[in-house]
User: Which sequence fits this backbone?
């Protein structure tokens, strides 16, 4: 709004204000309690503020609606998380307020640069410093913070495991191309030749044995040598000549550990003695299904064979109250539509604190109280899978030799020195959810009961 428009608006409001103070009908309505302060603001067309929350806590469709309303002027304040730093066009912004000092100068410039992009006559950005080390440092010497240099992005190729995992991914892809099939739909149990049914034995000519045999063929070395050389150029493995053999060794280790877990669960599920009750055997059968039914690529990433940067292996979901059916759906094999369970997500190390039972999560102005962990295991979750039991594992540690392992089995003796070990059972939650009968509320100052 230019200066002439501002003068005209102020003049018009002064006329309306004089009328409100002099009109007897308005005075009578005020005495009757019908005409209140909000009525004056409406008559004066006072500027309003309407805010919305723009963060990863919201559904994607709701975020798009907020962005559209902000561009059109129906929303003029967005409370944003780091999702707004880049990649989102929200139109004209005149003011940016940061509630803490960004961790790096690059983050600061991304946020400050949001203001004044549409040729506004003025724009402003200010930062609220909290009582934390970085904030105190920036507050005491703001010039030093603003003069920090930006580090150019780079790819570190000096990690042998990371480079080798990319080599493994290339070789697995080449093998899959020769055999056909969709690697995205394969399961780890199918690759290992380990059936889900307790009474069935392992396949003698399993796909993993065929893959290992393919890696050892001279034709594989000849066909892959040129491409592998380009793949590891300028990396720590540039001069290595054992890339394929190392891939073969890693897959053999994955196979050994997987088959060991599979055989242990089969033994427990078949146990008919007094050592395990019927409910325990049923649980072992479910654990066997879960072990073999994990999707191949994510399972190999979890086990250190494939790169893990493309798989959200440590992200869990919080399921709040849902007032309406989620819009994100996926087709099933039987032709029906499966509703995808959606909600805010956190990395597991943060979710343990933020979403743990008893914690309160504020989403778009409503307070939701976490009440428990989800019973589903596979990700992404669907309503059809939500009743599956959790994956409960054990971690044992040997006080004699220091060996340790995480496994599905109840290990009593150390695998290295056969000494007695300390074993702890633990649950790795795949998500958290509210109590369906405990409704959310809008009073952020009141705790849920």
Assistant:
């Amino acid at each position: 709004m230019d200066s002439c428009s501002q003068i005209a608006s102020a003049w018009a409001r002064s006329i309306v204000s004089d009328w409100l103070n002099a009109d007897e009908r308005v005075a009578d309505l005020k005495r009757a309690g019908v005409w209140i302060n909000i009525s004056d603001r409406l008559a004066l067309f006072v500027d309003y503020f309407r805010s919305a929350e723009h963060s990863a806590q919201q559904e994607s469709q709701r975020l798009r609606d907020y962005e559209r309303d902000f561009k059109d002027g129906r929303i003029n304040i967005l409370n944003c998380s780091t999702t707004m730093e880049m990649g989102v066009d929200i139109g004209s912004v005149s003011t940016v307020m940061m509630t803490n000092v960004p961790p790096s100068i690059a983050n600061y410039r991304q946020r400050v640069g949001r203001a004044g992009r549409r040729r506004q006559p003025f724009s402003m950005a200010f930062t609220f410093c909290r009582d934390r080390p970085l904030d105190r440092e920036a507050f005491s010497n703001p010039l030093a913070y603003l003069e920090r240099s930006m580090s150019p992005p780079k790819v570190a190729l000096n990690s042998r495991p990371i480079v080798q995992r990319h080599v493994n991914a290339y070789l697995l892809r080449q093998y899959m191309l020769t055999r056909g099939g969709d690697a995205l739909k394969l399961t780890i149990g199918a690759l290992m030749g380990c059936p889900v049914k307790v009474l069935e034995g392992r396949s003698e000519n399993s796909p993993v044995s065929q893959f290992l045999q393919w890696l050892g063929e001279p034709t594989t070395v000849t066909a892959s040598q040129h491409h592998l050389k380009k793949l590891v150029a300028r990396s720590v493995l540039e001069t290595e000549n054992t890339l394929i053999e190392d891939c073969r060794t890693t897959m053999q280790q994955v196979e050994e550990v997987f088959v060991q877990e599979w055989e242990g669960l089969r033994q427990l599920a078949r146990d008919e003695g007094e050592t395990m009750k019927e409910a325990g055997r049923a649980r072992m059968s479910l654990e066997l299904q879960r072990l073999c039914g994990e999707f191949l690529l994510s399972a190999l990433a979890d086990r250190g064979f494939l790169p893990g940067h493309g798989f959200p292996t440590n992200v869990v979901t919080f399921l709040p109250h849902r007032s309406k059916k989620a819009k994100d759906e996926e087709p099933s094999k039987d032709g029906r539509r499966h509703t995808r369970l959606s909600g805010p997500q956190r990395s597991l190390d943060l979710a343990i604190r933020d979403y743990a039972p008893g914690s309160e999560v504020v989403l778009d102005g409503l307070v939701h109280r976490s009440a428990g962990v989800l019973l589903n295991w596979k990700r992404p979750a669907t309503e059809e899978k939500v009743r599956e039991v959790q994956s409960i594992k054990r971690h044992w540690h040997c006080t004699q030799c220091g060996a340790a392992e995480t496994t599905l089995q109840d290990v009593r003796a150390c695998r290295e020195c056969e000494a007695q070990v300390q074993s702890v059972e633990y649950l790795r939650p795949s998500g958290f959810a509210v109590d369906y009968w405990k409704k959310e509320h809008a009073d952020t100052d009141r705790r849920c009961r």
